[in-house]
Design goal:
CATH topology of chain C: ABC transporter involved in vitamin B12 uptake, BtuC
Oligomer: heterotrimer
Strand order of the largest sheet of chain A: 2-1-3-4-5-11
Shape of chain C: globular
Order of helices and strands of chain C: EHHHHHHHHHHHHHEH
Main location (chain C): membrane
Largest interface: B-C, 61 and 58 residues
GO molecular function (chain C): transmembrane transporter activity
Number of helices of chain A: 11
Chains: A alpha/beta (359), B mainly alpha (285), C mainly alpha (363)
Largest sheet of chain C: 2 strands, antiparallel
Helix content of chain C: over 70%
CATH class of chain C: Mainly Alpha
Keywords (chain C): Cell membrane, Membrane, Transmembrane, Transmembrane helix
Distance between the termini of chain C: 25 Å
Structural class of chain A: alpha/beta
Number of helices of chain C: 14
Number of domains of chain C: 1
Number of strands of chain A: 14
Subcellular location (chain C): Cell membrane
Strand order of the largest sheet of chain C: 1-2
InterPro entries (chain C): ABC_transp_permease
Helix content of chain A: 25-40%
Structural class of chain C: mainly alpha
């Protein structure tokens, strides 16, 4: 008991390197905090698969501890701090809202390495990881353009943050390229978590003619269930949800953090972790489209695979010029591609989308 | 266009049903003179376990009668417990409840599939409302409930048990809130996740006031509130942009205006609002 | 007509140690509930008690977290209690807190490179005015239109939240923040000085303690405070003595609103450092529990706020160290007040079996 007490005080007092002598034999504690509970599908589940990969890769050298369902806000800081006080040497912050407190703690604890989801600030021991989900959604958008018969695609989106806006734009560009007559209907739910409302939104766009629905960043299979019941196609975010909608899922955009987590933890164990901005896309395998629906013909799949290969090799770019926004202003010139910082700060809709971004 | 109208009708009905169910319970409770602010938590609990837990919490709240504090406490407790109990079911899906198309009526174009092709509870809610209206107006029980809410002292004087009446009213209210929560989880969403009631409990409290404690207006109010949420989604889908926060606030703003207008005219208010609403009553004999 | 088999009657002359009994029973019940709930999650009872009630006080850092959490609860509860004593039911502290946070954020966002030392005091004033203004809406509607303040403040909570969402994703959004729904970070002069030079506790706890003293003096020693209380306990007597009810409503709501507004400023100028979608983890509602748990007494509230903060912090730590779900925390808050109210029933009232009374009646 007393030893534990001393540990806490020591950790609290600027988190001086703890008893470095003991650390050699004991497994290194890795802490992960998730914004939502780990369910059988969803964002937290995918992070947790990354954790499992780490355990598998490093065996006895590490132990992991998960703290789930931590709301973003000042209280999250306490939880992270407690993990560090308990001796965690590597911390995964699973949501954007943990950024500022996480960064502050990282500055106070130079011997602990952090990786943070979706953030935009880095430090020596504080890296960030973001998915280029828009690349995968581009492929799914192609498929949507191919299979739609009503020429209407519906999008149920959580919040109008840049990551989601980029996905909406990617879907629109791809679907339009396959099928210039496609109409896009977007409904912003303005919530990360309200299954009943997400389903109402999905039904709304279906009633307005959509026969392919995109579920952008809904953690539960809410929209997938509706699509299955209503007999339309659906593309969801996060996990493979084809079990919830065997006929409906056109493809699932899946996040896979295993190789990045293993690499980052490995670097941390070796003592050469460097906080950088990891942007995992199709190329690194961090995002992919899985569970492609059989309705796509071989010829269509070939085109999709071809585009995927081009995006991976860098030959093609989702936001390649010429690209105009809604008002007709040119955003990207012919022969150029939108640079990363602008993709990750996207606040405009591409030409052809109606409506404006919610304030 | 046709399918949009069908959805406008069916979506409205589906969104309004849990509001109506919970609000009918709250109406009984408020008519008996109790202001129950734990709806949100109870709906959350209902979404997981139905009404079992209301038995345990119901009893505390009458005797001391501090309804505000107790309501909030029970509400918080309900939210917490629902999270705990629901943990193993996080994100799980159940099969949707069977739809029962009403013969003949469901054949009418647009209106048929919009209004007459739903699960049993959707039809049941307005029927219950008719029953509730009749009960409050013409039965002995209704009379007792109203008497207790209006003037507990007089009700007591003529031999009715104020505490017993309120106790039962709260039980019914809790049951209805639980039913509404269960409806959202098992009929409309067909899945459970922590926090899925998402503020609907507060809308229910607003709705009862908005309806000025009258059953007919409660039904219309629930449909209006349901219509507002569905219309917003359709408007967005049609590419017309509206500040969603303003739309979300409309039920609350409407309720404040309704309270103010009704309360301004003292007589009108007295016709509907239970006079002893929210006041503590101690029986001493 | 069916009757309950018991009746409840007030005890006459409640004094002395019995007043302490109810909070004590509530605390013990909560501890027992904590052990049961934690055990159900597979945590040994001794570990549960350690995590929830001892660990939060076991180091300077943790203590500083408790103080950080205690400050807003204490400030809001003191403000609310004054109104509750006058029987003015302001349950809109959550919304008033949000308005305070918004009001307090305007200056540091408009003058983002300011180094003016008057920044913090001005922010605090601004936030208090905003919180007060939001509460004053309810006071106006109550005094002018006789609108029930419970319902109005309740509705205003939901509207305040939507207002905050609108502001952080629109007008007050950080122009360099990649469009995330949050404001720019505050300049250093807009941040509350930390208390021990470490940890996150800041001067808000000192202000909260001063507010406690002020509340005590106001209630126990000032004429206005006395009038307010009389108005609550015996409205007819108060009216007879010439105290106006309208004044009590205005005063109660404005004090409560200002206190909640101040707490809102302290959240954005303290642990948050910016305006964002999540400003309060329900402090406005928790403070209602704290106010009642403290018996609406300034000193009692001090202890209640401390206990509540310990539960919060202990819960968070138990979550991190022992894997106990967040819901345990929420449940315990509920248990605390439900058992307190239950205990008050037995302390303030006598429960007698009807059968016994009938027999007495015969005698």
């Amino acid at each position: 008991m007393k030893r534990r007490l001393t540990n806490w005080i020591a950790a609290a007092c600027m988190a001086l390197p703890l008893t470095g002598i003991a650390a050699t034999a004991e497994p290194v504690l890795i802490g992960l905090i998730y914004p939502t509970p780990v369910a059988d599908v969803g964002w937290a589940k995918q992070l947790d698969l990354g954790r499992e990969a780490v355990e598998e890769a490093f065996g006895d050298r590490v132990t992991t501890r998960v703290v789930e369902n931590i709301p973003e806000g000042p209280d999250a800081s306490r939880v992270v701090n407690q993990l560090v006080a308990d001796g965690a040497k590597f911390v995964v912050l699973g949501s954007f809202g943990y950024m500022n407190d996480g960064l502050r703690l990282a500055q106070r604890s130079p011997d602990v390495d952090f990786i943070h989801a979706s953030g935009f600030r880095q430090a020596e021991n504080f890296g960030t990881f973001t998915a280029r989900s828009y690349e995968a959604f581009y492929l799914a958008g192609m498929a949507a353009g191919m299979v739609t018969e009503s020429n209407t695609i519906g999008i149920v989106a959580a919040f109008a943050i840049p990551e989601v806006i980029a996905e909406v734009n990617a879907i629109t560009l791809a679907a339009r390229k396959e099928n210039p007559d496609v109409n896009i209907r977007i409904v912003w739910v303005n919530s990360w978590f309200d299954p009943a409302r997400e389903q109402e939104a999905a039904r709304a766009v279906i009633s307005q003619g959509a026969d392919v629905v995109f579920s952008l960043h809904q953690d539960t299979p809410s929209v997938v269930n509706v699509a299955q019941a209503e007999g339309v196609y659906v593309v969801n975010t996060g996990s493979d949800m084809s079990a919830h909608g065997p006929d409906a899922v056109l493809g699932s955009v899946v996040h896979d953090w295993s190789s990045y987590f293993v690499e980052a933890v490995g670097a941390s164990l070796e003592g050469n972790f460097e906080g950088h901005d990891e942007r995992g896309g199709l190329a690194s395998g961090a995002v992919s489209v899985q569970a492609w629906n059989d309705v796509l013909t071989e010829e269509q799949m070939a085109r999709i695979n071809e585009t995927e290969a081009a995006l991976i090799s860098g030959e093609a770019h989702v936001f390649a010029g010429p690209l105009k926004d809604q008002s007709g202003t040119e955003r990207v010139a012919e022969g150029e591609a939108l640079p990363d910082p602008e993709i990750f700060a996207m606040n405009w809709l591409v030409e052809g989308l109606t409506g404006s971004l919610p304030q | 266009m046709g399918t949009t109208l069908v959805f406008l009708l069916s979506g409205t009905l589906l969104a309004a049903t849990p509001l109506l169910l919970a609000a009918m319970g709250e109406l009984i409770v408020e008519r008996a003179g109790i202001l129950n602010l734990s709806i949100e938590g109870m709906m959350a609990l209902g979404a997981v376990v139905g009404f079992a837990t209301i038995m345990a919490t119901g009893s505390h709240w009458l005797a001391l009668g501090n309804q505000v504090a107790t309501g909030i406490a029970v509400g918080i407790l309900g939210l917490g417990l629902s999270g705990l109990i629901g943990k193993p079911y996080e994100g799980m899906t159940v099969a949707p409840m069977k739809r029962i198309p009403i013969p003949v009526l469901s054949e009418i174009p647009i209106i048929g599939p919009g209004l007459f092709n739903h699960s049993a509870l959707v039809y049941l809610a307005p029927l219950l409302a008719v029953g509730l209206w009749w009960m409050l107006r013409s039965t002995r029980i209704g009379l007792i409930i109203r008497a207790v809410g209006e003037s507990p002292e007089s009700a007591h004087a003529i031999g009715y048990s104020v505490l017993m009446t309120r106790f039962l009213a709260v039980m019914v209210g809790g049951f209805m809130a639980g039913l509404a929560g269960a409806f959202i989880a098992t009929v409309s969403a067909t899945l459970w996740s922590d926090g899925m009631i998402a503020g609907r409990g507060w809308i229910v409290v607003a709705l009862v006031v908005f309806a000025t404690w009258r059953v007919d207006r409660l039904v219309i109010g629930a449909w209006l509130f349901g219509l507002a949420t569905i219309a917003e989604l359709l408007v967005q889908g049609a590419g017309i942009s509206v500040p969603s926060q303003l739309l979300t606030s409309i039920p609350y703003i409407a309720t404040i205006i309704a309270i103010s207008i009704l309360s301004m005219d003292g007589r009108k208010m007295r016709l509907n609002a239970p006079a002893s609403l929210g006041r503590t009553y101690n029986s001493t004999a | 007509m069916m009757r309950l088999p018991w009746i409840v009657e007030p005890r006459i002359g409640r004094t002395g140690p019995r007043a302490l009994l109810a909070p004590l029973i509530a605390v013990v019940t909560t501890v027992v509930a904590a052990v049961i709930l934690m055990s159900s999650q597979g945590v040994a009872p001794s570990r549960a008690i350690w995590q929830l009630y001892v660990a939060p006080l076991s180091s300077l850092y943790n203590l500083s977290e408790v103080l950080l959490k205690m400050a807003p609860l204490l400030i809001i509860a003191q403000g609310l209690a004054i109104g509750f004593r006058a029987k003015v039911w302001n349950i809109g502290a959550e919304g008033q807190l949000l308005l305070g946070a918004i009001g307090g954020s305007l200056l540091p966002l408009w003058f983002n490179d300011s180094v003016n030392p008057m920044m913090l005091p001005t922010m605090a004033m601004c936030g208090m005015l905003f919180g007060m203004g939001w509460a004053a809406l309810a006071a106006f509607l109550r005094t002018r239109f006789n609108a029930n303040e419970i319902l109005v403040t309740l509705m205003l909570n939901s509207i305040a939240l939507q207002l905050l969402y609108y502001l952080v994703s629109g007008p007050l959004r950080d122009p360099y923040g990649f469009n995330f729904p949050q404001s720019a970070l505050f300049p250093q002069v807009a941040m509350l000085p930390s208390l021990f030079g470490m940890g996150r506790a800041n001067v808000s706890i000192i202000v909260a303690l001063l507010a406690t003293v002020a509340a005590w003096i106001f209630v126990e020693r000032s004429m206005t405070g006395y009038k307010l209380q009389v108005g609550g306990v015996a409205p007819d007597a108060a009216r007879y003595a010439g105290f106006r009810e309208k004044r009590a409503v205005w005063l109660s709501l404005c004090i409560g609103g200002a206190a909640a507004g101040l707490a809102g400023v302290f959240e954005v100028a303290g642990p948050l450092g910016q305006l964002q979608r999540v400003v309060s983890p329900g402090y406005g509602f928790a403070a209602i529990i704290v106010a009642f748990l403290g018996g609406l007494n300034a000193i009692g509230i001090l202890f209640a706020a401390f206990f509540m903060a310990v539960i919060y912090v202990g819960g968070d730590m138990a979550q991190a160290s022992a894997g106990v779900p967040y819901a345990v925390n929420t449940s315990l808050q509920g248990v605390l007040l439900v058992s307190y109210i239950g205990a008050r029933l037995f302390v303030d009232y006598r429960v007698r079996w009807r059968r016994d009374i009938t027999q007495q009646g015969v005698n």
